[in-house]
Amino acid sequence: MKKPELVVTPGNLEDIGILAEAGADAFIIGEQAFGLRLAGEFKREQLRKAVQLIHNYDKKAYVAVNGIFHNEKLDAMKDYVSFVESIDADAIIFGDPAVLMTVREVAPNMKLHWSTETTGTNWYTANYWGRKGSKRAVLAKELNLDQVTEIKENAEVEIEVQVHGMTAMFQSKRLLIGNYFRYQGRAMEIERKGKDENLYLYDHERDNRYPIFEDENGTHIMSPNDVCMIDELDELVDSGIDALKIDFIFKSASYKKEVTALYRKAIDTYLNDENEYFKQAGEWHAKIENIQPKNRKLDTGFFFKETVY
Amino acid sequence: MKIAVRYGADAVFIGGQEFGLRSNADNFSLEEMREGVQFAERYKARIYVTTNIIAHNENMEGLKEYLKGIEAAGVHGIIVADPLIIETCKQAAPKLEIHLSTQQSLSNWKAVQFWKEEGLERVVLARETSHEEIKEMKENVDIEIETFIHGAMCIAYSGRCVLSNHMTARDSNRGGCCQSCRWDYDLMKQRDSEADKNVFPTQSAPFAMSPKDLNLLHSIPKMCDIGIDSLKIEGRMKSIHYVATVVSVYRQVIDAYCEDPDNFTIKEEWVRELAKCANRDTASAFYEGVPSFEEQMYGKDNGIRKTNYVFAGMVIDFDMETNTATIQQRNLFKVGDKIEFFGPEIGGFSQRVAAIWDENEQQIDKANHPLQIVKIKVDRPVYPYNMMRRENH
């Protein structure tokens, strides 16, 4: 059986060594000028060091260039793509076709992972981006398990799904928190309210808390619960899925380390001895539950949920 | 659709029963599309069908046949977001033009170039694009560009919001959007050791992200100058009165500017006319810069606009000899009401309701049944499909 890659999102250089030791196979890094909703901010020099460090551990480094770009950013993006190639990153994650066009121009040997967060929903379109040069498709989180495995069955590209952590629900170009502060008369000018402000929207009817923050890309609203599939990995692994991702945005260093180690153990155990996996899976889930941040429940996302329209 | 064409639209985009973001059984069947195309052709207008879902595996079924059906109905093009539908259309229904939907959040000229190389005839831009950006796109890429000029809009990048999926298990990118962005929330700050805290006092207006509707009336000349190929009005679930009013105002503005750009000014009457059908406050959004809090709606009144006018009825016939109009009632009106007629043949005029007769020629003092057929005397000639609105009591 194929061993899926365990992809994680480090917050800083220090995380990389710790998570590599804990069993991560690949790292998503980048900076907010080009990448969306990253767990850490790796400016160019740090990005260079990060890629070296990741390669020292014999792991893969994927750089997020998945922003929605406006004209004014195109030149900077082109320069950035050249830089990312020059530091020998293993792949660029993109959503905007402008990045694909730019990679063809300035870094034709660079691998591409197609990821738009919300529109990777069927196998045909995953393969379409494959024909355009993408090696991997990162699926939308709003799919159920059957849809995911059906995509994998029909995919001509590698398939990555998120199995743990917070997911993005919303991106606006407007600065919605700043606008609200100004409406309330509390601010003369808008200052972006970043991740460190720990703000969330409270939904009374559902008793849900949606983290919200602003950055260069606008306003982002995140899911109220963390997906946790550690005890439901069997069908995903059986389907031959290529990569399982953990998103560590808003998580502490110790949390990242422990969750990475548990998933490592879960994947290896399943591949080695299914019965042993099923015996222990509940315990691993409970361990994660114990270290969940305040007000962040675990759930299984859309994997077992029916959506209507 | 017919009203939009009669009031001056060059093209109309409609939803079919499947594959669109506004799918439901009340939408156009293939038979109705065929009829719509034939009607539109009399006015040299074009019909586009929205097939702009972000498809899941199971939506592939029946897609080919559906696109072939649309093509056979004589429809001119489809508006698409998912490459699955783009590619399927190229193979199965090659006569259809393919327009990229705003759901692809198209925001830069290089991405526009990509879609041109993919063979698309037209792209509808993200609503987040500005005048300068669109100008650069036109300069850099030879492709038709379409942008929104009026109507309701998403507060998120269209296609990049799944609030509805999370909050109500309804898929926003397949037409299920429950408009969670129009709800109120509390903005809270998470604190480690103490209870979380509201950022603003709970009695003040809650956090909201409801956008005002788009209105680019004043920007039309600039849009024509840079050669935007198609200006789009969003009119879903709107009354025929709304469609007639908005379409006829923009028709007049575009024609007046193109005819004599040097002496063009925005007439006050156009602004007033548009306000007569507004159901929300409006703003210019991203075309003129990044929108501030003033382009959102907060608090109790929430920007819901009560206009001073009500859609009272539509003309279905006119007797020249007796100056009597036959009206299909749409909202209550009564003797003594101040009313206005408008339509492409007549411009507009106002008068009072002097007397009303019902279908049995009996005089009545009010028309209070929905779709009731009544007659009234009119000061000037009117034509079928002219609209009648009344000033509020």
From TrEMBL, chain A:
Record-linked Pfam families: Peptidase_U32
GO molecular function, one term: peptidase activity
Cross-referenced InterPro entries: Peptidase_U32, RNA/ubiquinone_mod_enzymes
Gene Ontology biological-process entries: proteolysis
Alphabetical keyword list: Hydrolase, Protease
PANTHER family hit by this protein: PEPTIDASE U32 FAMILY, TRNA HYDROXYLATION PROTEIN P2
Identification of the protein by name: Putative protease
Organism: Thalassobacillus cyri
From TrEMBL, chain B:
Pfam families for the chain: Peptidase_U32 (PF01136), Peptidase_U32_C (PF16325)
Domain Peptidase family U32 C-terminal span(s) in chain numbering: 308-389
GO process terms (BP): proteolysis
Domain of life where this protein originates: Bacteria
MF term (GO), any: peptidase activity
InterPro entries xref list: Peptidase_U32, Peptidase_U32_C, RNA/ubiquinone_mod_enzymes
Entry keywords, A to Z: Hydrolase, Protease
UniProt entry tagged with the keyword Flavoprotein: no
PANTHER family according to UniProt: PEPTIDASE U32 FAMILY, TRNA HYDROXYLATION PROTEIN P
Protein family per UniProt: Belongs to the peptidase U32 family.
Name of protein: Putative protease
Natural source organism: Thalassobacillus cyri
Species lineage: Bacteria, Bacillati, Bacillota, Bacilli, Bacillales
